[in-house]
Amino acid sequence: MSTPFEDLQARAAKRWSELTEGESAWIRVGGGTSGQAAGADAVFEAFKSSVESTGVNANVSMVSAMGLMYLEPQVDILMPNGARVYYGNVNADEAKEIVEQHLKEGKPLTDRAYAYSGGDGSGVGNLPELDSMPMVALQKRIATRNFGDTDPHDLLQYVANGGYTALNRALTEMTPEEIVDEVKAAGLRGRGGAAFPAGVKWSFLAPSKAPVKYVLCNCEEGDPGAFNDKGIIENDPHTLVEGLIINGYATRSTHGYVFIRTGHELPIESARKAIAAAYEAGLLGKNILGTDFSFDMEVSLTGDSYVAGEETALMEAIEGKRSTPRFKPPFPAAAGLWQKPTNINNVKTLSYVPEIVRNGSDWFKSIGTETTSGTAIVCLSGHITYPGMYEVPMGMTIREVLEKVGGGVSVGERIKVLQAGGPLNGLLGEDAFDTMIDFDAMSAAGASIGSGGIIVGNETVNVVDLLRSLVAFNQFESCGKCFPCRLGNTHMLEILDRMCQNKAKSADLALLERVGTSMKAGSLCGHGQLGFNPIASALKYFGDEIKSCLAGEIAPGGVFGDGTMILPTRTRP
User: Fold this and answer.
1) DSSP secondary structure code for residue 540 in this structure
2) What is the pTM of this model?
3) Buried (b) or exposed (e) across 41-58, using 16+ Cβ within 10 A?
4) Do residues 214 and 321 both lie within one domain?
5) How far apart are the first and last CA of the chain?
6) Angle formed by the axes of helices 508-522 and 483-500, nearest 10°
7) CB atoms within 10 A of CB 317
8) Which residues span the domain enclosing 360?
9) Quick one: which of 422, 375, 397, 405 has its CA closest to 68?
10) Is the pLDDT of residue 564 over 80?
């Protein structure tokens, strides 16, 4: 007699076979925020209409984005013989021509395609294989393993590609203690910025005998330039749902919350649909997969608050209160959401868990560096040739990511500055570009992997104006609960305003440092404690430029030297 999960796998295999092994071609249009912002919805409708009007035998699906955002909207066509051709920057007007020539006449438009995969390579001209392209070949896709291949709203497609295998193994073959030990042994460190070992964090919650315990997933993600948490949820939500259920089982918790900022509509929709599908398939609720483990999950939203990403402020928001940090202790594992024992993890952290359970800790530990195992999901934007979201093994250097994956500077002569890890982290100069992407190496360089965002600036970027943009963002987003952060950010912004207007005083640099030191020592949460980080790192790499500005020797003209700003510079009235 088959098990509930074997029945689910059989349905999934049938569904995948219908899409990939039948007589119909499969047209996949890349969705997600990046695709839809570039017009993917119109392209999708145009391909559906073209298939109907030409009478060709093809399925048309809106699938997840590949992360190659410079190529949006993307379309790939998988033929019954296994050959797959990828088209980039497609517009709706091209749909009929592609359908007629590629599907009806069997002649891919090689002048419009950018790569191929599968098949014997015949009929594709000089197109490169997808896996030979540096921005693809240098990736190690774990959390993003299904990107570009599956419909994020189809649970069966996820299961057909190994999804929920880890959950089934966890519930039927492993004890909660064994899962915690496996995550510890894998060396998985939190991907929300603090880099605390996830297994150790879980071990704080697991021993509690409380009848109600919570595990939370943090997708507030308000950092400018960061979009990987949202990208995972909108492009492969089930990998997060599966990871959170395993987290709940490992810590003997009863409820899970996926916490998302209001306004992130695609991630919100994807998360809700995935959770509903998991309930329908018996993967959530009572007696999951016929076992005695029960677990519930829901999406919780917050307003437009950056500080809501701090773990205790996040819990306040879920409880319907203002998003401000709590004093600690007590820590969440003892008294968290509604004063019940609670753990909070980032989207990326939880998305690695299914593959760790499925493949083992040794497999995950073999990827990356000695101190930081696994991968980094980096978001490249700004003056970079190939902006996008890329999952690369820890240990690659920043320079390799910029030049080989990102294609180097897009405008100008060179890359001058990077804003890495969000507005509370550092600015890096060329001297740091050979730093490994690794939690400890990045920290030593004066920055952080943080949220994964890397904003690239060329030689025209004015560092002082960029600092002012970052501090203005932090000042606006301070919740105001503690005065070192509230007043400190405001005071630093006033000083940087003076510098940008050539009205700086000789003592302003020392004053900035005193304010930053006070913020670090006296602020309630990381928002104030880390507020001086951008200035400290800028002094390390761009000290001469800052001192020239203090002396009135240069006149800032906007971040890009022409008045254009890279980040919002909002100030409260």
Assistant:
1) H
2) 0.94
3) bbbbebbbebbeeeebeb
4) yes
5) 68
6) 160
7) 23
8) 163-364
9) 405
10) no
Furthest C-alpha separation in the chain? 81
Please say whether the dihedral angle defined by the alpha carbons of residues 566, 33, 572 and 481, taken in this order, is positive or negative. negative
Beta strands per DSSP E along 235-324: 255-261, 296-302
pLDDT reported for residue 304: 80
Residues 6 or more apart whose CB falls under 8 angstroms from that of 435 comprise: 397, 398, 428, 441, 442, 444, 445
Q: Which of 364, 396, 421 is the last residue of a domain?
A: 364
Using only C-alpha atoms, the chain has a radius of gyration, in whole angstroms, of 25
Amino acid at 333: A
Residue 252's closest CA among 333, 320, 163?
Answer: 333
**Whose structure tokens read 């509230």?**
486
Distance in angstroms (rounded) separating the CA atoms of residues 247 and 180 = 9
The whole-number pLDDT of residue 568 equals 39
> What CATH number does residue 75 fall under?
3.40.30.10
Q: Please, what is the average pLDDT of the chain?
A: 93
CA–CA dist 391, 65 (Å, integer): 13
Q: What would the mean pLDDT of 389-394 be, rounded to a whole number?
A: 98
Note if the bond before 128 is cis, omega within 30 degrees: no
pLDDT in tens, 277-314: 999 999 999 999 999 999 999 999 987 889 999 999 99
Q: What is the number of structural domains in the chain?
A: 4
What angle do helix axes 347-359 and 237-250 make, rounded to 10 degrees?
70
Instruction: Identify the band that residue 560 occupies on the pLDDT scale cut at 50, 70 and 90.
Output: very low
